[in-house]
Structure formats: C-alpha cells, structure tokens
Design goal:
It holds the Pfam family MFS_1. The chain is an all-alpha fold and about 475 residues long. The protein has helices at about 30-75, 80-85, 90-95, 95-105, 110-125, 130-145, 150-160, 165-190, 200-225, 235-250, 260-270, 270-300, 305-310, 310-330, 335-355, 360-385, 390-405, 410-415, 425-460; strands at about 1-5, 25-30.
Length: about 475
C-alpha cells in the first residue's frame, strides 16, 4: 500500500471513510494508482496524439509537396525552398513562451482548439498560393499560429502526470510525429493523383485537404478536451482525489499560481539553457529528417512516387522505438542514458549516409538516423520539465527549450543543399548529435552533484517535507527538490 496526503477538495465527503486515515492521509494501493493512470491515458492521450499528428503533418508536408510538383510550379530555384521551410520556425519559436503562459491563464480546452482552428485555416488557404512570396507569407503565419501546440501539450501533460510517469506519455503523443512522417508520405502519394481537380495542382490539394481536417478536429476539441484533474468529469471524486494527491506529493510543495518572478526564475536558470543545448542538438536532425527524407530518398535514385512511399518505413520504425524508449525511461526513472544511446544509433545512420554510395545501404542509414533520434525528443522534454519546479516555471522552461530549440529548424532548412550525397547536411546532423551527447553527460553530472548537495543540506538543517511551505516559491532551487538523471 502507498500513502498520499489528503487534498482538501469539495468531494472529500464522498470518499469512503475506509480510504482515509485518521492522520488525514489518503490510502490507496498500487493497483488503484495504475488503474487511475490507465483511465487518464484512455481519455487524454488518443486525442492529444491526434492533435500533434495533424500539427506535424501540416508543418512537414512542405517536403512532400516539393517533390509532388510544387518546386517546378512555383519556381523554387536555388535556396527558395530552404527559405520557405525556414521562415516557419522564427515566429514559431518567438510565440511559444507567451502561448504557454496563456495556457495557464486560460482553459486548455479553449486555448488549444482555438490555435488549431487558426493554423488549420492558414494551411487550407495555403493551397491558393501560386507564388514564392505567397508561400513565404503563409509559412510565417503557419509558424505563428501553430507555435502553442507542442509546448502547450507538453506542459498540459505535466499538469496531469507525475514527473516519473510523464516521459512515456510524452513519447506516446510525440510518436504521432513519426506517424505523421509515415502517413504524410502515403497521403501525399494518394493526393498527388488529384492533379488538375478543381483547377488545383496535386501539391495544392495536399495543403487544402490536410488543413480542412485540422479545422474539423479542432472544433471537436472544444467539446472533448479536459482542462485539469480537479475538473475532469471522467474521474470519480475518489479517483480525482488520488490524482491530485499524487501530483501534490510530486510537486514537493512547489507553487502553482502565476507570478512574473517565476518567469524570470526560469529565464535566469543556467540549467534551462543546458536543456536547450540538448534539445537543439536533437531537433536539428529531427527536422532535417522530416523536411528532407523524401528528397534524400529521391536523390538515391528512386522515383518521386517511390520516394514518397519509401519515406514511410523510417518513421514507422521511429514511432515504435519512441514508445519503447519512453516506457523504459519511466520504468528506470532515467533520462540521460536513453538520450545518449539514441544519439549513438542515429550517428551510426548518418555515418552510413555520409560514407556510402549504394542506394540500399544508404537507405538503411536513413532508417537508423530516424530510429535513433526520434525517441530522444520525448525523453528530453520530460527531462526539461522535471528539472523545473512549480507550474509557471515549468511551463516557461518547456516553452524556452522548445522555442529556442525550434530555431534549429532554420538551420535544418539550409544544410541539405548539394545532392546527391548531402555531405554538409549529414555532417551537420552528426555534429549536433555530438552536442546533445556532451550536454547530456554534463547535465547528468551536474544534477547528481546538486542532489548530493541538497541531501547534505537537508540532513544538516533538519529539513523535511513538513517544511515544504517555506520553499514553495523557490522552484527547483528548493532544498527538497530532486533532479532526475
């Protein structure tokens, strides 16, 4: 049996007296805890995974549209495609911190569907672009409107799950990105056949149909998204109390209210920028994979249609490994070792791509590159969130990590310039994977050092959980806060 501190909510009276101890603690078994977590998973994860699938599909379909005829029809010569791919990430990065603050100030079930409607409309109207300049403007607004979803959902999950449970959940919803990569290729392969229908090219129909689906799903979000455990109707009063109690204990007395000083704490913490370094080292290869896998496969000698189809297996394999890594990371409560091992696998893939000329072998390298790096993103975000104490500090930290990291998408957009070998692109990805490995090793060493210092301080000063209130506004600087390695 495990014991969780009782939370003072209105439904306490409806909880059976047999579940409450005289000292005010809520008693529940491990089986009950797992049952409640499974119920939350069932009600939360499928829909938010669908949201992220649509998000990643809408931002990455530019790669499929390129080889479906967009490059020729719009005259994307020289660096024009790279510019179109890159401009998305600038407003995307800048809007993420404000968006996560808005998520906390407003209801998630209103904020997230609203930004979805906005980017879905932009995506749909992007099908009407006939010029290079029009595509640039559309991609800028797509980045601005889509910015809040990924950091928002990551923050949203941290408000429902304990730090030790969240990596596998982020992995499940992030695996939607790998499914989007696979599904995007299949979808583009079919939609290309609509060439000329309604006076639109096949690549324009890719934008139009995928944008319409996003808008329709967004409207569903207003009715089926849940805000917080305290207000979740699918939880019974006793289940709600168990969830809130677990979160209270996991928060270690950290503040949950908004105060601008928490924003400043996150921005001034060097550990935030360590996590930024890890994330940007991972994200540049991830975006390069999403934006250029169809092009890379095409340059290996496969036709455009076959390149669309052959871009599917790397993402399918990445999806499976992402979920397995996330589950294992939560089980062992470790983040750094899983990031490092994934980077090593991806490095092997890029080395093969860099050195080999045979299409079959090089394609195998592309699969390894995707399989290795995709699983690390979810774990890196879980690590960044668990290294920040308090709701606002955590939300801002995650938004900074994701926002600054996404500027790496600008880099990803300009490194694959010289076909068919793409030595600059593959070499750049290898370099940033090396950065992620080095920064992960530093973070593990630093967090272990800080944990030992806090343990010594608590023992010397007699600090225990009964004094949590004294340190509520210190975030992860609290002597009671412990970092995950």
């Amino acid at each position: 049996m495990s014991l969780e501190k009782k939370v003072d909510i209105t439904e306490n009276a409806s909880v059976g007296s047999s579940n409450l101890r005289k000292d005010g603690w809520l008693e529940h078994s491990e089986a009950e805890r797992k049952r409640v977590l499974r119920k939350m998973d069932f009600h939360l994860l499928p829909f938010i995974s669908l949201l992220y699938l649509l998000s990643f599909l809408d931002r990455a379909n530019i790669g499929n549209a390129r080889i479906a005829g967009m490059a020729t029809d719009v005259g994307l010569t020289g660096l024009r495609y790279n510019v179109i791919a890159a401009v998305f990430f600038i407003p995307y990065a800048l809007a993420e911190v404000p968006s996560n603050i808005c998520l906390k100030l407003f209801r998630p079930s209103r904020w997230i569907p609203s930004i979805m409607v906005a980017w879905g409309l932009v995506m749909t109207l992007m099908s009407l672009c006939h010029t290079y300049q029009g595509l640039i403007v559309a991609r800028v607004f797509l980045g601005l409107t889509e910015a809040g979803l990924f950091p928002g959902i990551t923050f949203y999950l941290s408000l429902w799950y304990r730090r030790g449970d969240v990596a596998s959940r982020i992995a499940i919803f992030f695996s939607a990105a790998t499914i989007a990569g696979a599904f995007g290729g299949l979808l583009a392969y079919g939609i290309e056949r609509m060439e000329g229908v309604g006076g639109l090219h096949g690549w324009q129909w890719i934008f139009c149909l995928e944008g319409i689906v996003t808008v329709l799903v967004a409207f569903l979000g207003y009715f089926i998204m849940h805000d917080y455990p305290e207000t979740a109707h699918f939880l019974t009063p006793s289940e709600r109390q168990i969830v809130i109690a677990m979160l209270k204990e996991d928060q270690q007395g950290q503040a949950t209210h908004y105060d601008f000083k928490f924003v400043l704490q996150a921005m001034g913490d060097y550990k935030t920028f360590v996590q930024v370094g890890i994330y940007i080292g991972l994200l540049i290869p991830v975006y390069a994979t999403a934006l250029f896998t169809p092009t890379i496969v095409n340059q290996l000698g496969y036709s455009a249609a076959n390149a669309q189809l052959l871009s599917v297996p790397p993402f399918v394999a990445g999806c499976i490994i992402t979920i397995l890594f996330g589950l294992s990371s939560d089980r062992f409560n470790r983040r750094g070792p899983f990031i490092i091992s994934g980077c090593i696998v991806s490095l092997i893939g890029y080395i093969i791509l860099y050195t080999q000329t045979r299409p079959g072998v090089s394609y195998g390298g592309a699969v390894l590159a995707a399989v290795g790096v995709y699983p690390t993103i979810a774990i890196a975000l879980a690590w960044a969130g668990s290294a920040a104490g308090g709701d606002i500090r955590k939300g801002v930290t995650l938004a900074m990590v994701i926002g600054i990291g996404n500027l790496g998408g600008v880099c990803s957009s300009f490194i694959y310039l010289k076909p068919p070998r793409f030595h600059v692109g593959h070499g750049t990805c290898m370099g940033f994977l090396g950065l992620a490995i080095v920064m992960s090793l530093f973070a593990m060493w630093d967090y272990n050092r800080l944990n030992k210092q806090k343990i010594v301080l608590c023992e010397r000063e007699g600090i225990d959980e009964s004094r949590q209130g004294e340190f509520a506004e210190m975030g992860n600087d609290s002597p009671l806060f412990r970092y995950t390695l």
